Amino acid sequence: MNWFAEAGAKFSVAFLENDRYIAYLKGFGTTLYVSFFAVLVGVVIGLVLAVVKYMAVRKKSFRPLGWIANIYITIIRGTPVYVQMMIIYYIIFNVRGFPAFLSGIICFGINSSAYVAEIIRAGIEAVDRGQAEAGRSLGLSEMQTMKSIIMPQAVKNILPALGNEFIVLIKETAIIGGIAVLDVTKAAMNVGAKTYDYLTPLLIAAFMYLIVVILLTKLLSMFERRLAKSDRR
């Protein structure tokens, strides 16, 4: 009982006292905001990279672009996201007044794009090649076939994996406090500095991440089941 009373007192100090819960909620709002827009950036860049890699296999004129795409993906996937964030914030966008959270969005968007590119490429290649041949037999160009026939069918394979990428990205943004962005992890560290107890605030932050990840995982599972039902029909 003494342990529970002590834990409850620590929770009260770390979360309720002086309305500290507001800092956690604002921080988590920043986490979701950065994650959402980073995924959008990642999908846009990743789609371009995936299409370039797909076309590079089929047309010689795209091969130089395919090499560039491969180099980009290798570098981004082969280096730590924390190092990328430091380079983007302190070197590339080292401009007075440039928002730190925007550097975070760009960094995580670029990092995510390398993984999203492979997700989209795998989804495209999962579509039967006969579909592309059918499009060409109808007089469509490579790009028209991609837009009207291949991509609509690939979307079903891509969406669940993109949902998982969003979940992973939410957790990865926990390092954004390294560039002075007040996310939920940074908020927990600030509370710990004031209360001289870092464990309780970090456990609160971890619990908030866990709840959101569980909810998103459940929603993603429901979405995948609906896609499976539509396929059977």
Automatic annotation (TrEMBL):
SUPFAM superfamilies membership: MetI-like
Alphabetical GO biological process terms: amino acid transport
Protein name listed in UniProt: Amino acid ABC transporter permease
Source organism of this protein record: Qiania dongpingensis
Ranges of residues in domain ABC transmembrane type-1: 28-221
PANTHER family noted in UniProt: GLUTAMINE TRANSPORT SYSTEM PERMEASE PROTEIN GLNP (PTHR30614:SF20), MEMBRANE COMPONENT OF AMINO ACID ABC TRANSPORTER (PTHR30614)
Transmembrane parts of this sequence: 32-55, 67-92, 98-117, 161-182, 202-223
Topological relation to the membrane, as annotated: Multi-pass membrane protein
High-level lineage: Bacteria, Bacillati, Bacillota, Clostridia, Lachnospirales
Keyword Membrane in annotation: yes
GO cellular component terms, A-Z: ATP-binding cassette (ABC) transporter complex
Keywords for this protein: Amino-acid transport, Cell membrane, Membrane, Transmembrane, Transmembrane helix, Transport
Protein origin, superkingdom: Bacteria
GO molecular function: transmembrane transporter activity
Protein localization: Cell membrane
InterPro entries to which the protein is assigned, alphabetical: AA_ABC_transptr_permease_3TM (IPR010065), ArtM/GltK/GlnP/TcyL/YhdX-like (IPR043429), MetI-like (IPR000515), MetI-like_sf (IPR035906)
